[in-house]
Amino acid sequence: MNGQNPRERMKMTLIAITVVLIVLFLVIVGCFLFAIAVLLGRIADNLDDCLENTEKIVGQAAVVLPGLGRINQTSRLLAKALPALIDVAKSAPSDWFPTRPTLRSRMPSR
After folding, report:
1. What is the distance between the alpha carbons of residues 45 and 48, in angstroms, rounded to a whole number?
2. How many of the other CB atoms lie within 10 Å of CB of 96?
3. What is the pTM of this model?
4. 26, containing H or E segment
5. Where on the phi/psi map is residue 4: left (φ > 0), alpha (ψ -120 to 50), or beta?
6. Who contacts 4 (Cβ-Cβ below 8 Å, separation ≥6)?
7. How many helices and strands, by DSSP H and E, does the chain display?
8. 3-state percent breakdown (helix, strand, coil) of the chain, nearest 5
9. pLDDT tens, position by position, for the chain (110 residues)?
């Protein structure tokens, strides 16, 4: 027994097991932090892509923005005129509006 009593051996064994468990815990925490870092990197890449797309949209909107008032004014005018246009179309003779050919009439005969 190498001159150690069983109590001292048990104490040394518990200390060794504790050190091994602490090292194992630190390895697991390190792996977890590495996985979190990878995920955060992917999120950062996605946010960068979103920023680029947002900047493109802002650039496209800047072109439309000066004419937006005119577009809205024209849309309101058309919305007010639409019922009158429908009434005119209903009262117009049918020969003014040619009928569209059906799919079967356009298909070549076999």
Report:
1. 5
2. 7
3. 0.51
4. helix 6-64
5. beta
6. 12
7. 3, 0
8. 85, 0, 15
9. 466 788 999 999 999 999 999 999 999 999 999 999 999 999 999 999 999 999 999 999 999 888 889 999 999 998 998 888 888 888 877 777 666 665 555 556 65
